[in-house]
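Q: Given only this backbone (143 positions), what sequence would you predict?
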């Protein structure tokens, strides 16, 4: 049980560490903190968190308050204290690059779906033009 106690003690130390940071910053521990504050505590750029939120890959639940993502403090403290491994948050450039690759794949898929539709409409347009041409010839002959 010594091993388990060591983990619990480390988790308690991490929990106290976060609480102290929050107390120094806010004088009282708030209910919610901004994603920017989470980024500062984790030592990563806020833009990285915002990008992951935008992409739906942020590792914690959050609420939007006045269009600003807010994280529940107790949830964050528990996560920080007991997390085994910090999730890999890609820097914004890598996230954008990954999005670009996704877009290229989507374009290829979309093109493969649109091509038959384009062919169908081209044929329809040609058919309608032919019908109009024939109708105008008939009208010309009738005059």
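A: Predicted residues:
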């Amino acid at each position: 049980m010594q091993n388990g106690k060591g983990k619990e003690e480390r988790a308690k130390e991490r929990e106290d560490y976060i609480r102290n940071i929050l107390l120094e910053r806010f004088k009282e521990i708030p209910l919610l903190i901004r994603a920017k504050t989470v980024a500062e505590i984790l030592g990563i750029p806020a833009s990285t968190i915002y990008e992951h939120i935008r992409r739906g890959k942020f590792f914690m639940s959050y609420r939007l308050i006045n269009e600003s993502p807010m994280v529940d403090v107790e949830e964050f403290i528990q996560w920080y204290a007991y997390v085994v491994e910090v999730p890999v948050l890609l820097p914004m450039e890598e996230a954008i690059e990954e999005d670009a690759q996704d877009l290229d794949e989507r374009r290829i898929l979309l093109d493969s779906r649109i091509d038959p539709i384009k062919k169908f409409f081209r044929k329809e347009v040609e058919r309608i033009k032919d019908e109009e041409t024939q109708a105008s010839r008939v009208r010309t002959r009738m005059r």
